[in-house]
Amino acid sequence: MRLVRRFARFWYDFIVGDDWRLAIGVVLTAVVVSFGTHLGTNVWWLPPLAIGALLGSSVHVAFRRPPTMKSNTAERSSGSAPLVSRTTPKAGLPKRRSHMKRSKTTAVPVPNPPMTNAALAQHARTTIAYHGERILAEIPRTLRRIGLLVMVLAVTIPVFSAGLLVVLWRLGN
Questions:
Q1: For residues 74 and 105, what is the distance between their CA atoms, to the nearest angstrom?
Q2: In the chain, what are the domain boundaries?
Q3: Backbone dihedral angles phi then psi of residue 113, each to the nearest 5 degrees
Q4: What's the pLDDT tens digit per position in 61-105?
Q5: How far apart are CA 34 and CA 25, in angstroms?
Q6: Which residue from 6, 29, 56, 118 could staple onto 50, CB 3.0 to 4.6 Å apart?
C-alpha cells in the first residue's frame, strides 16, 4: 500500500507540481484540441497559444505573491544590525475585505556603530556558514529532480523517436 501511495504521490507531483492551475490548463487544452481534431477542425495553433497564456499567468501569479520573511537566528547572533519591522499602509484600494487590515511589512536595519575587523570577520564566517548549509541542504532535492528528469527523458525520447519513425514510414508509403 505504501508503494501505491508513493506512486500516486509521484504522479501527482509530476503532473500538478507547484501550480494546479497549470495542470488544469494543460488538460483543458488537450481536451479542446482532441475535440477539435475529432470534429475535423484545424487547431494546431491552440497549444502554443495556451502554453504562452499559461506561462504568462503563472509568472504573473508568482510575482504577485509577497515574499516571505524568515527570521534568522544566526544573523542575529553574529553582531549584525538588528532588523526592525516597520509597517507601511498598502497603496491603492484593496479588492477584498480580508486585505483591508493587512499592512505591508518591510525590514529596516537599525544603524550600529562601525564594525571592527574581528566583528566583520565573524559576521562573514557566520554568513558563509549559513548560506553554505542552505546550499548543501538543496543538493539531495536537486539530485532527485535530476534523476526524475533523466527517468522521464529515458522514457519519452525512445517513444518520441518510435512515433516519428512510424509517421515517417507512413508518409513514405
A1: 21
A2: 1-65
A3: -65, 160
A4: 877 776 665 544 444 444 544 444 455 555 555 455 555 555 666
A5: 14
A6: 29
Sign of CA dihedral 86, 92, 95, 100: positive
Contact 22, 52 (CB under 8 A): no
Angle (nearest 5°) at CA 122 between 120 and 127: 95
Under DSSP, the state recorded for 94 is -
Distance CA 82, CA 110 (A): 6
Q: Nearest to residue 72, comparing CAs of 61, 83, 62, 86?
A: 83
d(CA 172, CA 170): 5
> How many CA atoms does the CB half-sphere of 43 hold within 13 Å?
16
Mapped onto helix, strand or coil, the DSSP state of residue 88 is: strand
Instruction: Please enumerate in sequence order all residues whose Cβ is within 8 A of that of 15, keeping only pairs 6 or more positions apart, or say none.
Output: 23
C-alpha grid cell for residue 119?
566583528
pLDDT (tens digit per residue) in 118-159: 888 888 888 888 888 888 888 888 888 888 888 888 888 888
